[in-house]
């Protein structure tokens, strides 16, 4: 009879297959799946489609302050939302840069609570996406400037823009 060491390990799937599986799961489910193994965690951390949405940060802030409408947020709370989203973008793009992994799709949606002060965040997101070989870029950025770097992106296949100021080149 074969001896059992008590550890049952299955061979790891390739990262692209894990990405494919994770693409069928909700954010919550894919986060839970990331604890299966180191390979699943790294695949979850470097998923090919990235979503950044200021409305999600705003709704969290509204729950904290007991507000109902985004326009009722104070400038301090709007700045906190900006900082939180900025940090999320920086933290999310870091593993891609470090490991030289391409990003397939980046969606950046900024709600109506913003003004042109958000331009640095939009620039950071676009620069990080282009640096990591983004193929699909979707911006919904009212009152913000569309970064010029997206027009020089060699990897870009699809650019979708709504509610952005487009600079003259």
Structure description:
- This is F-box domain-containing protein.
- InterPro entries: F-box-like_dom_sf, F-box_dom.
- It holds the Pfam family F-box.
- With about 170 residues, this protein is an alpha/beta fold.
- The chain has two domains: about 10-45; about 50-165, no CATH class.
- Helix content is about 45%, strand content about 15%.
- It contains six helices and four strands.
- Strands 1-2-3-4 form a four-stranded parallel sheet.
- Helix 6 links the parallel strand 2 and strand 3.
- Helix 1 (about 15-20) packs across helix 3 and helix 5 (about 75-100) runs parallel beside helix 6 (about 120-130).
- The N and C termini lie far apart (about 75 Å).
Can you lay out the helices and strands and say which pair or pack?
Elements: H1 15-22, H2 27-33, H3 38-45, E1 49-53, H4 54-65, H5 75-99, E2 105-109, H6 119-131, E3 136-145, E4 158-165
Parallel strand pairs: 1-2, 2-3, 3-4
Helix pairs in contact: 1-3, 4-5, 5-6
Protein name: F-box domain-containing protein
Organism: Cinchona calisaya
InterPro entries: F-box-like_dom_sf, F-box_dom
